[in-house]
Design goal:
Elements lengths: L5 H7 L3 H9 L6 H4 L17 H7 L13 H5 L35 E2 L4 H16 L3 H6 L3 H13 L8 H8 L5 H10 L1 E8 L2 E7 L5 E9 L2 E4 L5 E2 L2
Antiparallel strand pairs: 1-2, 2-3, 3-4, 4-5, 4-6
């Protein structure tokens, strides 16, 4: 791997907060920037479960921001337990076919090809994209790394209107409503091709709309792969 590669540095530095702000701003026409890296859910089984946010909500402990008295469920859509995973067919095949002759292939050469974890990682990304496309922000948060959640907490602490907001509420606030159709199209077109891992870090490489190749940074947490950004990095 070429450590000095600009593409790899940019991908590794794709901080969740920065990606979220891109999703919030700009027109909904640019799917790669407005909704972020779309990816994967193969035949690997995903089990919806009650999130920590949902447990808090069921106990009545959370209120939406702005002091309007609305529950976080009312302000951020369906609960994570209401999310129904969809089946996706992914081409796979590894990263070799996705390299650019004479180009920057640092992501395609990152770490090593990991076929054993490919389906699980692809499922996590597909589920993230599908949940977001359905407006199920609580479920989308279930497939995001702790790093993104923590960045949301920092954002909430600095924004008066977001104080006390849940991950789901903040994700909803950061997402441009005009990007709804683009998010649905990206979720449907996402085709996972390769998982490159190095320790607990990884890139899931997939093709999206118009054949664009993206890399979604991922992290392994408690034995599960999670997305580390709200946007994939275009590789071509």
């Amino acid at each position: 791997m070429r450590r000095g590669s600009k593409t790899l540095i940019a991908a590794l530095a794709a901080l969740p907060l920065a990606a979220g702000l891109v999703a919030c701003g700009g027109g909904g026409g640019d799917s790669s920037s407005s909704t972020g890296g779309e990816a994967a859910s193969t035949q690997a089984e995903a089990k919806p479960h009650e999130s920590s946010q949902e447990k808090k909500k069921s106990s009545g402990g959370e209120q939406s921001s702005g002091g309007e008295g609305k529950s976080s469920k009312e302000s951020s859509g369906p609960s994570a337990s209401e999310f129904a995973p969809r089946q996706h067919s992914d081409s796979g095949g590894g990263s070799a076919k996705l390299r650019t002759k004479g180009g920057d292939n640092s992501v395609q050469e990152f770490g090593a090809e990991n076929s054993s974890d490919f389906a699980v990682a692809a499922t996590a990304l597909h589920n993230f994209l599908d949940a977001r496309a359905q407006g199920n922000w609580a479920a989308a948060c279930e497939f995001m790394s702790q790093g993104i959640v923590e960045s949301f907490k920092r954002l909430a602490s600095q924004a008066k209107q977001l104080k006390g907001a849940t991950c789901a509420s903040i994700l909803q606030a950061l997402t441009n409503p005009a990007a709804k159709q683009a998010m649905k199209a990206e979720a449907e077109k996402a085709n996972a091709r390769s998982l490159r891992t190095e320790g607990d870090r990884a890139f899931l490489i997939y093709t999206g709309l118009e054949g664009t190749v993206f890399a979604m940074p991922m992290a392994e947490e408690d034995g599960a792969w999670k997305v580390v950004s709200l946007a994939g990095t275009p590789l071509n």
